[in-house]
Please model this.
Amino acid sequence: MKKLQRFLVAMVLAIATLSASLTPSHAAEVVIERINTNTVMHVGQRYWIDISVKTTTEVEITQACVIWSGAGPFCFPVVHVQKNKKVRVSIIARQPRVYDVQVFVKYKSGGKVYESNKSSVKVTVEG
Model:
């Protein structure tokens, strides 16, 4: 019984240490406030996702990333961030179905690369 208790305590400590190491060590500097896109898309056609972000400091947004119902992320370079802090990324759906599309951006701050929060929208892709 004591061996089991020691094992369980060791597991709890290991899990606590792992979750502490996965916690970001900085406050989020880029937060996605809203995403806008078509909620009904057609296979093979190009669509835009507009990502409205809020920044607390000057950062360089380098990539916009999309996750299709767990597949991905597929990240694309950001060429231009509009003055109203809007980032655009184009997507093309390949398979008809309903997707949970998650979006986030990668940004540089203090020489390091960070990720924003994720925001999602349900998208129906028709054949």
Summary: The CA atoms of residues 62 and 107 lie 5 Å apart. Confidence is low (pLDDT under 50) at residues 6-25. The chain has one domain: 27-126. The chain has one helix and nine strands.
